[in-house]
């Protein structure tokens, strides 16, 4: 990946709907080589897809909750089973296997406290193998980036 590829990625992260013609003009490359580079970046999985960023509060999910999960076992089978379970929970926006005393860190969205409580009781706490959980509610996002610093 060279400097031109990095410029393509930077521009696309700002506006993934940009046409190849506009992208080529913005980065100073003709359309055909730009299209080839973009196709290669997509084929290599560097450009993993395109989507719209949706404001979670405006769709009725203003609450973000970070949940630390400690599992009974840290075996591969236990972690895989937990991962399979939470992949089916649409409220789980992120789920990370972590180092340290807690095993998992998740970010969950909810409409309100009652909605979050329902998620805990009906979904998360029914997953086998959880030893304990700790939840923290985000008051506000101080930094929230969508653009990776690839330049």
From TrEMBL:
PROSITE patterns from the UniProt entry: HTH_ASNC_1, HTH_ASNC_2
Protein name as catalogued: Leucine-responsive regulatory protein
UniProt keyword DNA-binding present: yes
UniProt gene name: lrp_1
Domain (HTH asnC-type): residue spans on this chain: 1-62
SUPFAM superfamilies for this protein: Dimeric alpha+beta barrel (SSF54909), Winged helix' DNA-binding domain (SSF46785)
InterPro entries in alphabetical order: ArsR-like_HTH, AsnC-type_HTH_dom, Dimeric_a/b-barrel, Tscrpt_reg_AsnC-like, Tscrpt_reg_AsnC/Lrp_C, Tscrpt_reg_HTH_AsnC-type_CS, WH-like_DNA-bd_sf, WH_DNA-bd_sf
GO terms, molecular function: sequence-specific DNA binding
PANTHER family in alphabetical order: LEUCINE-RESPONSIVE REGULATORY PROTEIN (PTHR30154), TRANSCRIPTIONAL REGULATOR AZLB (PTHR30154:SF34)
Keywords from the named record: DNA-binding, Transcription, Transcription regulation
Biological process annotations from GO: regulation of DNA-templated transcription; response to amino acid
Top-level taxon of the source organism: Bacteria
GO terms for cellular component: cytosol
């Amino acid at each position: 990946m060279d400097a031109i590829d990095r410029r393509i990625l930077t521009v696309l992260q700002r506006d993934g709907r940009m046409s190849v013609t506009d992208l080529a003009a913005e980065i100073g490359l003709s359309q055909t080589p730009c299209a080839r580079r973009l196709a290669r970046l997509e084929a290599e999985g560097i450009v993993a897809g395109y989507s719209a960023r949706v404001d979670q509060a405006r769709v009725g999910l203003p609450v973000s909750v970070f949940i630390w999960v400690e599992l009974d076992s840290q075996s591969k089978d236990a972690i895989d089973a937990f991962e399979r379970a939470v992949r089916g929970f649409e409220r789980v926006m992120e789920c990370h296997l972590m180092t340290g005393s807690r095993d998992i860190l998740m970010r969950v969205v909810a409409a309100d406290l009652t909605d979050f409580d329902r998620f805990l009781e009906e979904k998360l706490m029914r997953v086998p193998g959880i030893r304990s959980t700790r939840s923290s509610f985000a008051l506000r996002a101080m930094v929230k980036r969508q653009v990776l610093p690839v330049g």
